[in-house]
Design a protein that fits this description.
Blueprint: H1 2-75, E1 78-80, E2 86-88
Antiparallel strand pairs: 1-2
Amino acid sequence: MQDKDSEMLNHQRKRRKRIAKIRNGIILIVAGWIVLSMILIVALFFKMVSLEHKIDRLVTSSSEQNTDQCRRCRKAEWRCDSRGNRRYGNYADGDDLG
């Protein structure tokens, strides 16, 4: 009887240790997933900021080129409509060419 009880206790201890290992493994996997997600979020945030700066530089550069093109158009009696297309003729400054 005593051997059977000690065997059952031994079996329960092994089972509890096994369950504890599985539980700790699941907790570590979830914690690792959370940390990895946070690292990726921060990396993507910095990449987004970098891309925003590049877009700002491109837009600024594009608007400066468009302004230069319109200045050249005015000298040659060309006018640019709202989309940057060149049109010939004498248009009033307030005319909507778009």
